[in-house]
Amino acid sequence: MRKSLKVLFGVVIVVVAALLYAWPYVEMELAGFANYTEQDKREYEFYTPDILKKMPRITENYDFDFANITGPAKHVNAVKFYGTDNTSKIDAYLTAIGYKKQDECDLNSSCWRASDPNETIYVGILTGEKTVIVQVVYDFTHNVSRAN
């Protein structure tokens, strides 16, 4: 009986440890919104797409946002650069990696697209502030409409 209790106790400890380790990731997966910096390593690695990780840092003062809009239909990842209104380095970066600036955009910003039909990049300047915001919008509803 004692040996079986030791084994049971060991299994319980392993399960509890696994849950404690995984819980922050479960919370992030279910989150509707997150605001974080590059120093928040877990959030930065989990939420930030490669395109924003490699984005030129045009100021030293910046942070990131993630939003899950209308359920799983859209994810918006953004980086905000404070203290500037110059987007030339970002525009050059997007051009260099194969994105094309679109003629029309539904927001007060410039829109960029590459080969992924679900992804649009918005580059804009917040009105009245010296803040550049770069949003990567993943619209998963395109897959649904094409499947029907």
Q: What is the compact description of this entry?
A:
With 148 residues, the chain is α+β, with helices and mostly antiparallel strands. The protein has helices spanning 2-30, 41-47, 50-53, 88-96, 141-147; strands at 33-36, 62-69, 74-82, 100-101, 110-113, 119-125, 131-139.
- Indicate the CATH class of the largest domain: Alpha Beta
Count of DSSP helices? 5
Rg for CA atoms:
21 Å
Q: List unreliable stretches of 5+ residues.
A: 144-148
CATH architecture term of the largest domain: 2-Layer Sandwich
Number of domains: 2
Class per helix and strand makeup: alpha+beta
Provide the CATH topology of the largest domain. Phosphorylase Kinase, domain 1
